[in-house]
Amino acid sequence: MTDSAKTLHTEHMVINMGPSHPVTHGTVKFTVTLDGETVHDLKVDIGYLHRGFEKMCENGTWEQVMPYTDRLNYVSPLINNVGYALAVEKLFGVETPARCQYIRVIACEMARICDHFTNIAAGAMEVGAMTVFLYFVEARDLLWDLMEELCGARVTANYVRIGGLKNDLPEGFGAKTAKAFETCRELWTDVDKLLTKNRIFIDRMRDVGTMPAEEAMAYGFTGPCLRASGVPYDVRKAHPYLVYDQLDFEIPVGETGDNFDRYLVRMEEIQQSMRIVEQALAQLPAGPINLDVPGLRWQSKDDTYNRIEALIFHFKTITEGIQPPAGEIYAAVEGANGELGFYLVSDGSGKPVKCRVRPPSFPMTAAMPRMMRGRLIADIVPTFDMINMIGGECDR
Amino acid sequence: MSPNATLDKISRQFPRSVIETHTWRGDATAIVRREDILAICTFLRDDPELAYNFMMDLTAVDYLGKAPRFEVVYHLYSLSKNQRVRIKAQVPEADCAIDSIVSVWIAADWFEREVFDLYGIVFKGHPNLKRILLYEGFEGHPLRKDYPVKQRQPLIGPLN
User: Fold this and answer.
1) Which CATH architecture has domain A95-316+371-395?
2) Which of A73, A176, B27, B135 has the highest CB neighbour number within 10 Å of its CB?
């Protein structure tokens, strides 16, 4: 340090990276205490997107919660749908037919691919790689076209039902998926060539936002951020649900837990998810997609209009809600960000007593101050991106 | 360790603290006295046979009409044993407080703030017990069952 620097009077400056900021997607407020460009302290304020998910769930019936789950992690809505449906089915103690399980796996993995595309696209764009954003948004759009054919909506899918699905796969879905994946793989290779050995990208991401494995676990990290730190925990392998135990896939694990490892883990997970979808489409069995339990899942409209018992069940389940036995369960699925857990408490009536979502990006956002202390203000950008904090899920 | 083995171990280690244990749909649950929650959580984390190193979720449930009214629910996961357990501590309405377990798992920091924000349960020993999801100036604790869904707030004003 020069003589003038030693005698220079400095003080910390507090800057507000307010909730409305291009980088803080999901609306988060960072109050950064700066010493020049070095972050001395960082305070995170969330809750700008809090919409009262749990209160709304307690106010409606069990099936009415389903559209709310779309709006949790809104970049991978199908995973939230599936997670909630699996949790309620665990309360009932039932399992859906095989075809339904395979289609749910396909839906989950496609949502996961879309989430990873979005995350890498946004992350790369914010450090300057605009082209990557356009390439991956094109790839994501192809998958959204497929989802639109499947369930009618690109984002707020509302496709899964408790005890089944809204509708079966449309005609030619397999062939269209294969074609879309071909283009997605080309775009993936392009992005890989643009970023993975890119000097600027590596300088911005390598050794930034590092989280050692022990601390990551203490903070409650799960998902790609935890796997980037070297901990091979994936709910699909640890507690297999649906038909994941019959599909062949690997979970990529990083080493240092920095942003570059998070990027690499997500890139590889895209490839693995495409593998899973292709296997699931190949192994898809024939059969019903809905459980034949009228008190849990509607019968077909044909039945409802012609048979009085089906009509009565339909009426009852809509007006009073389906009625699971009294008790509580916790069911977790592997969301795109980590362990998406649902803790449901039932008192035997048609309305939930408690419908809690364990948000995977909540602990990672809580660890932002820990990751950013001593780093430069510019490091906040890639770190916050690679955590993939989704406002809808973190704030509910 | 099977779920029942975890519950047996906690019951043997803390015979006066564990009120009830049960397993339903594969989930192991232990209801404990809130005074001993810190000791129980430290034991769950540090005992080599249990090794619950993840605090996955911390939430509360309002059983309005029952006494004690609230239940603080902890979901723990052991990576090495691949085992989950649920610990519930009952908190009465009158003395609505429980010890904070931030010193055991730092993940509890934000989760406890959220429970304080939405339910009004105070966590003794928490370093920064402020509202997290709701804004300063919000009145009341909305996830309590006696908070009406359509309640208006002073900073927002009436509907018309």
Assistant:
1) Orthogonal Bundle (1.10)
2) A73
